[in-house]
Amino acid sequence: MLNGIHHIAIICADYERSKRFYTEVLGLKIIREVYRLERRSYKLDLALNGHYVIELFSFPDPPARVSGPEAVGLRHLAFSVSNIEQVVAHLKTHNVTPEPIRTDPYTGRRFTFFTDPDGLPLELYQV
């Protein structure tokens, strides 16, 4: 059956802004970037620690999507971190303001949420 999650696909409103966010702020590495003329769309393949994880797409005039934390659909994308305070401090140097750090009452793990340039909810989860 299933072996694992291969990748997450994200459609962004401003390709260059999101490309900078995911590469310069979050530190993902570019595997491949292609422009698909027939779709007037970029596709950017990104890796985290050598693992292919995100496909970032641009499309002309994509429709807005409800992205509230309790909306139906994918709730958020979570990144595991070793030192949540260090990552929060790094994000703040890039004008990204995470929510206050919380502790999961069931697991005892610390976590926080922030958003990408299009308002996609992202989580840091300390492991």
Automatic annotation (TrEMBL):
Signal sequence coordinates: none
MF term (GO), any: metal ion binding
SUPFAM superfamilies, per database record: Glyoxalase/Bleomycin resistance protein/Dihydroxybiphenyl dioxygenase
Domain VOC: 4-127
CDD domains the record matches: VOC_Bs_YwkD_like
KW Transmembrane (keyword) present: no
InterPro entries associated with the record: Fosfomycin_Res_Enzymes, Glyas_Bleomycin-R_OHBP_Dase, Glyas_Fos-R_dOase_dom, VOC_core, YwkD-like_dom
Keywords, comma-separated and alphabetical: Metal-binding
Gene3D superfamilies listed in its UniProt record: 2,3-Dihydroxybiphenyl 1,2-Dioxygenase, domain 1 (3.10.180.10)
Name of the featured protein: Glyoxylase I family protein
Organism: Chitinophaga ginsengisoli
